[in-house]
Amino acid sequence: MDINKRIIKHFKDSADLKLRVMDRLSAPIAEGAQVFFDCVANDGKILVCGNGGSAADAQHFAAELINRFEKERPGLACVALTTDSSVLTSIANDYDYNQIFSKQVRALGLPGDSLLAISTSGNSPNVVAAIHAAHERDMRVVALTGRDGGAMKAALHPTDVLICVDAQSTARIQEVHLVSLHCLCDIIDYLLLGE
């Protein structure tokens, strides 16, 4: 396979997956956006966490809400728990890497806040721990996962939302996660501002 065909295959595989899962994901994405809208409309904040590429997605989502997505509006309270190297390394050093997000959720999260937990496998122990911490703080959780949802799916409460991309490739799951995050931003803005 030459390089151009390989590149075209990436585009095609990504487009095919997005088309295959869009009907299945539209309802949970809408439900997740409603959770986040209700949170920020009632002076709550959204905490976001993930590892690696999912950490980048967490920061991307926080930037879209704090600054703006596609329309001018006041900033919305959103904190990526992936950004403070001193906090992350002190928790990992003094306790355990699996607590880097859960300790922050316990310190920063309040009842009425919400958590966006991101993991392509659904099995990241530190993200699962953050879900449990969010429940301790009476926060609703929106889980953005892949494959079969993994341990994150099992950790969710009935009032939580699962957005699970039924695919095996991490890259393809991340591509659908990005579209899903943009959909969440768009629907939050729509609920705030209308057309």
Span of the ends, CA to CA = 46 Å
Strands side by side in the biggest sheet: 2-1-3-4-5
Q: What is the CATH architecture descriptor?
A: 3-Layer(aba) Sandwich
Number of domains: 1
The 3D shape can be described as globular
CATH superfamily: Glucose-6-phosphate isomerase like protein, domain 1
Estimated share of beta-strand residues: 5-15%
Approximately how much helix is present in the residues? 55-70%
Structural class estimated from helices and strands: alpha/beta
Write down the overall mean pLDDT.
Answer: 97
Given as residue ranges, the uncertain stretches (5+ residues, pLDDT < 50) are none
**What's the tally of helices?**
7
CATH topology: Rossmann fold
Whole-number radius of gyration? 17 Å
- Please write the CATH class name: Alpha Beta
Structure write-up:
The protein has 195 residues and is α/β, with parallel strands linked by helices. The protein has helices at residues 3-41, 53-66, 85-94, 102-108, 125-136, 150-155, 170-193, and strands at residues 46-49, 78-80, 114-118, 140-146, 161-165. Strands 2-1-3-4-5 form a 5-stranded parallel β-sheet, with helices on both faces. The longest helix has 39 residues, at 3-41. It is globular and about 50 Å long. The chain starts with a helix and ends with a helix.
